[in-house]
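Quick log. Single chain, no ligands specified.
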Amino acid sequence: MMGPAIRSAIKQLKRASISLPSLPPGGRSASQRTSAPISRPSVPTPRVAYSIAITPSGTRLAPPPRNPGLKRLGSSLPRVRNAVKEALASPGLTRTKVVAAIVRLIDHALLRPGYEEYARREGGRGASTLLKSDVSVNGDQVVLMFKGKGGKEIRRELRDPLLARVLHKLSAAKGQRLFSLPDGKGGEPVTAREVNEFLAEASGSSISVKDFRTFRASATALAVLTEHNGHESEVMRKKAIVAAADEASKILVNTRSVARSSYIHPSVIEAYEAGKLKTSVLRGRVRKGLSRIESALMRFLEKTS
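-> predicted structure:
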């Protein structure tokens, strides 16, 4: 007969399936991106089932960490941000500089990447498919107003001198698309594929654009739940989880249920429910290139994975 440990492992085995983030396509270096990219068919995100290993004695070995892309992003985010800053501060208006401006928006405004086919079919836009009419620049302030995925109204306000200067120049160029390299004819629009190439080169690892939204949503939820730590009542704990999902949904411009099920790292909520989310996680050192809550999320992920 099977012991309780093995029965438990088998039950978990049936549930142990996670989605890995798409690997950004390799290819040209940032300095070589001077011409229109070659259109390639998109590759669907693979689903890989992980089995749980059990020793002959019935001991269950720990499964692989869930959503390893978050730790990869957190580790490489300072390098990506530094590469973006250097590109935006460089002279001229190169294609790499234009791509860096898109990455800055994805990072700071949590925009989706923006795909040509979706923009043509549904009209919803993301960072790379923004129109000049979607953006206004006033000094150092950048205001974005456009329809995103599912027709949702997106409004973002940023105060960013480096980004504002680049967007001001792009807005004055010919053509409707914001992110295209000026050539006197409207330019060739930058694509999401080029954004992925920039991220791969700057980070030196496989990170996806969605990781930015997932990382920030998880960090936001972690901060909210840490503030509500210590609730003994199950009702109060559930209210705190709802509050965390609500805060994440605001920055994502998404529903509470989608924020919780698709963006907030499940370990954050599990640790809170188990009373293992320590307030000290927010009091540690702020890491270079990360914010306070991003640093806290990295400490949490490193301890729980």
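The longest helix spans residues 69-89.
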